[in-house]
Every structure is written in C-alpha cells, then in structure tokens.
C-alpha cells in the first residue's frame, strides 16, 4: 500500500495590523499598571503584548508561509502583508514566483546515435508548497537533476536532422521546434509532479552536432543542398527545353530531324545546367555543315 502524498492545506492567518496594535496597547497598559503598583496585572499585560508581537510575520506578493507545530504540518498561508499566527508555529517562507533554470549544454546521442550538444531553458514555479517541502529533500536540486534527465531522454527520442532512413514527416530536433518544445514541457511536468512544481515554459537554447562530427555532418548537409539545388535546376532546364521545342514546332520556324533535335537539346541543357558561363560557338555555315 503506497504512502499518501501530502497536499497543501490552506491556512488563514489574522490581520497583523490589528494584532500588532493590540500588542502595543497591552505593553503600554502593562507599563502604566506597573507604575500604579499593580505588578501582577501589569506583568501579565506586558507578557501578552510580547506574545502577540512574537506571532507577527510579513509576506510579500507571491510569497507563502508554511506553518508547522512541533513537526506537524498545519497549513500554508498565502495572504500577503502583515499577518499574525500563533507564535509557537514555525513559519517557513517560500516564494511561488516563476523561476528560470538554464540547463547547461549536454553532450548526448540522438535517435540515430549521433553525438549532439543540447541545452534548454526552463521556467517553473512551485504549485503545491507542501509537496515541495515535505515530499522531496531539496526541491530546487530535484528540479535541476530531473530537468537534465528529461533533456537527455528527449534528445534520444528524436533525430537531429532529416535523413533518408527517417519516415516522411517525422519530427526532428532541428526542424520540429514547436513539437520538441511541447514534448519537453510534457516530460518535465511528469517528472516535476512529485515535487509539486509546474512547468510554465521550456525551450531549447542550444542545438548542434558534437565537435568530433560537426565537420563531417556539415559536408553532408552541403552535399544534400547541392544535390537538391541541382535537381531543381535540371527540372527547370528540361521544362524550358520542352517549351522551346514546342514553340519552334508550333510556329514552324525551323524543322529539325531527330539527330539535330537531340543536339539542340544537349546544347541547351549544357547551357542551362552549367554552373559556369557558357562560351557559344557561332556556326557560320549552313545548319547541316
């Protein structure tokens, strides 16, 4: 049978201004009583005033106080300003403001086993103060370690970049930024849940191949870019040659036999697909000489 997770319990403290004013009045009244030789009442009033003063504490906006009594959790006060609670309550202040965690650049393997460098920035805040304090030993260290573990696991689930062995439309770390960020937030939230922490935002801040394979992968990417560009150039050149032959035939400008037509196609493709300026040779004779 699993242990029950401790949840935050609300605690409503007393207005500290009223309690403080009452404490000051009791101390003043006790002093006057002592001057009037009313020793016992005076002492009791002074002790009561000091007792009230000892229970005062102040909370800033988005700050909470976790109250415990001799080791027993009493509740969490989220009322800002000057507050008062039983002086024997131990009051531990805990901010619930959003915090930034910069996960240092990690060297991990992606889905295809390529070593990559990856880093992330995580925005988080404490949602349940009781879980954060009582369910884990050090919730800030817990968040830091779990964020690193989540980032390592995320990197192993995706390939760094597109490749021939990937399915069409498969998400990659470099191309699927929004999908990867959503997956990272989901994984972080699942890991932070035990500490009562919620993820506000999470995004990758660094993504690159590891130094030992960066140059090789750069050459591969350049080769893929060149092949893609050449494919587009060839496709465009073929379309232009086809249009030129059709225009010549429709307008009856010149009639070419299959051999001359093949020569014309070859020359046009060389001119259109060459990465250098073509040097034309003018035929001063007849078409068939």
Automatic annotation (TrEMBL):
Q: What is its main location?
A: membrane
Which residues are listed as membrane-spanning?
Answer: 12-32, 38-59
- Assigned GO CC terms: membrane
Ranges for the Band domain?
54-221
Q: Subcellular location, in the record's words?
A: Membrane
Bilayer topology: Single-pass membrane protein
Name the domain of life.
Answer: Bacteria
Does the entry feature the keyword Glycoprotein, yes or no?
A: no
Q: Which UniProt keyword terms apply here? A: Membrane, Transmembrane, Transmembrane helix
Q: Does the keyword Transmembrane helix apply?
A: yes
Q: Which PANTHER family match?
A: BAND 7 DOMAIN-CONTAINING PROTEIN, MEMBRANE PROTEIN-RELATED
Under what name is this protein listed? SPFH domain-containing protein
């Amino acid at each position: 049978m699993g242990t029950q997770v401790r949840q935050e319990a609300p605690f409503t403290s007393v207005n500290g201004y009223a309690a403080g004013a009452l404490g000051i009045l009791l101390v003043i009244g006790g002093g006057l009583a002592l001057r009037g030789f009313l020793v016992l009442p005076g002492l009791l009033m002074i002790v009561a005033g000091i007792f009230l003063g000892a229970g005062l504490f102040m909370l800033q906006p988005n700050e909470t106080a976790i109250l415990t009594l001799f080791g027993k959790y009493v509740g969490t006060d989220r009322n800002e300003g000057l507050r008062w609670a039983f002086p024997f309550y131990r009051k531990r202040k805990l901010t619930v403001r959003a915090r930034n965690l910069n996960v240092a650049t990690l060297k991990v393997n992606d889905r295809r086993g390529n070593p990559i460098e990856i880093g992330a920035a995580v925005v988080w805040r404490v949602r349940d103060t009781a879980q954060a304090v009582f369910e884990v030993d050090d919730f800030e260290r817990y968040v830091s370690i779990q964020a690193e573990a989540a980032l390592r696991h995320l990197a192993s689930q995706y390939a760094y970049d597109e490749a021939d062995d990937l399915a069409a439309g498969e998400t990659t770390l470099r191309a699927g930024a929004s999908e990867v960020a959503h997956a990272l937030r989901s994984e972080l939230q699942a890991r932070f849940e035990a500490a009562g922490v919620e993820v506000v935002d999470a995004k990758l801040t660094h993504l690159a191949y590891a130094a030992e394979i960066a140059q090789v992968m750069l050459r591969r990417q350049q080769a893929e870019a060149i092949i893609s560009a050449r494919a587009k150039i060839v496709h465009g050149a073929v379309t232009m040659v086809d249009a030129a032959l059709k225009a010549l035939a429709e307008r009856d400008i010149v009639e070419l036999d299959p051999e001359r037509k093949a020569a014309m196609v070859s020359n046009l493709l060389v001119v259109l697909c060459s990465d250098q300026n073509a040097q034309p040779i003018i035929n001063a004779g007849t078409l068939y000489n």
